[in-house]
Structure formats: structure tokens, C-alpha cells
Amino acid sequence: MTPPLSFPEQVSVTPISAFSDNYIWCLHDSNTAVVVDPGDANPVLAFCEQHQLTLTAILITHHHHDHTGGIQKLVASYPDIPVIGPHGGHIQGITQPVKQGDTASLETLHCHFDVIEVPGHTLDHIAFYGHGALFCGDTLFSGGCGRLFEGTPAQMHHSLNTLTHLPDDTRVYCAHEYTQANMTFALAVEPENAQLNRHAEKVNSLRAEQRITLPSTLAVEKAINPFLRTQHASVADAAIRYSGQTLTSDDAIFAAIRRWKDEF
User: Fold this and answer.
1) pTM > 0.90: yes or no
2) For this structure, is 28 an active site residue?
3) Is residue 121 annotated as part of the catalytic site, yes or no?
4) Which one from 62, 125, 157, 199 is the annotated catalytic residue?
5) Angle between helices 250-263 and 179-189 (to 10 degrees)
């Protein structure tokens, strides 16, 4: 059966800001809510109180504290709700561990998400895909990708390539407002990329008004994100110039671009 390309009509996706640049994505209708990566419980509790919503589930993409730190307090406020996240038993509070190929079902919202394992930023990282939406945590950012805290460049490159096989109109809900800084780096890699230049102008305008730059789409990211464009000569040439080495594979080009970003 072909999965639906959009959420049920009554379901909305709203960003809840946390810390300096995190987004806790909240899927909700007029009565119930599900949150993705609640690093801080307080803004979630405030949002639910403001909109008279009952929290019914939590989705977790990886173990970092700015994505998991609110689990305990939220579960204390909403006992027995499912907490769906990476298997392995290493994240306190997970009640439904999931892995590649599993389905995360949010029955109160009539939503269902495929689980995709995307190691790189961390080894346990997963993404949730369904209803034309991708909740990808810190794996794919608009114009960038996550730092390699645990995985290898080859693992991250493979994970990103896996995501690029989803439909181009997939909406990308990543977990941080990093887009403006990512645009600066992407332009250093591909200064002649016309679509990238136009997108950077749009991002600058949004941030000047303190507006969110997300969600993006995979079609946009394939056009402007250097970490998804290692097969393009412009990115490969830039990576070779930066590294001063002959790079003969997409993995090597990706690794050079990631090192460049780390030092940028």
C-alpha cells in the first residue's frame, strides 16, 4: 500500500523552541499531541497547557541530552505514554525500542512512520518517515548535516544517501535552526550555485525577522546542500582544493567537506 503523502487533515506540525536553537516538533490535533526529541520538558508542558492538549507519545531520534532531557518530566506529567526511540537499552525512558524497518504508530493522531536507521552523528540515530514528512534529528540539516560524534564519514554519507531516495517533496523537519550558518559554508563550497544563492537570500530575510527556516524539502536540499551533492563536479573540485589531495570517491569527497565544515 502506498503511504499517504500528507498528514490527516486535522493534524498540524508546530515547532516548539528550546535552548538556543533546538526545535521540538509537535504533531497535534485539537486534543492530543506527540513531540519529537523533547530535550526540555518545560516548553512542551507550556505549549500543551496553552493549547489544552494531552501529550500521548514521544518520539526520540538519538541519545544526546538536548533531545532526551525532557523525557522523565514529561512522563511524570503524562504517565504511561509510549516513548518510541532507538533500541539498545541505553536511553532511559524508552518504552518502545525500534529499529530499521519497524513502524512507529501514533494511534491518537492516526499517523504511522517508518523507522530508518541513519548512523553517523551518533551510532544509534534513527529517523521517522511518513505522511510526506521526515523527522531526522541531527542527521540532515537544511544546507548541512550533523557532526560525526560517533560514526564515520562513510556511515554518515550512506545515511544521507538513504534519505535522498525518499520522494523529492518530502518535508524535512530537522532539530536545529542552523540554516543561516549552513548557507555561509555552502556558499564557500559552491559560490556559483544560483539556486543556493537565491535560497541563502531567502534564509537571511527569514532570520532577519526571527522567523523559522524549516521545514525544507529534499528537492531543495539536493539543490543547495553540499553534503548531498558530492557527485557534482563543483563540490568535488572544491573538496579537492580544500584538501590538497586527489579524491577518487564520493565518500572521500564527503569526508573532506565534513572536515572543512568542522574547521570553518
Assistant:
1) yes
2) no
3) yes
4) 62
5) 120
Q: Identity (one letter) of the amino acid at 26?
A: C
Strand order through the sheet with 83-86: 12-18, 22-28, 32-36, 54-59, 83-86, 96-98
Whether 67 is a known active-site residue: answer yes
From the list 28, 63, 64, 131, the catalytic residue is 64
Query: Could you say which of 37, 40, 66, 124 is catalytic?
Result: 66
Q: Is 51 a catalytic residue?
A: no
| 157 noted as active-site residue | no
Nearest to 260 by CA among 244, 248, 161: 244
Domains of the chain: 12-263 (3.60.15.10)
* Catalytic annotation present for 176: yes
133-149, pLDDT tens digit by residue? 999 999 999 999 999 99
Count of beta carbons in the 10 Å neighbourhood of residue 164: 15
Q: Which of 28, 63, 121, 157 is catalytic?
A: 121
Tens-digit pLDDT profile for residues 24-39: 999 999 999 999 999 9
Of 3-12, 55-64, 177-186, where does mean pLDDT reach its minimum?
3-12
- Alpha-carbon span 4 to 233, nearest angstrom: 36
| Active-site residue, from 28, 63, 67, 157 | 67
* Cα–Cα distances in angstroms (integers) from residue 112 to residues 6, 80, 103, 133, 225, in the given order: 11, 20, 7, 11, 28
Q: Among this protein's residues, is 199 annotated catalytic?
A: no
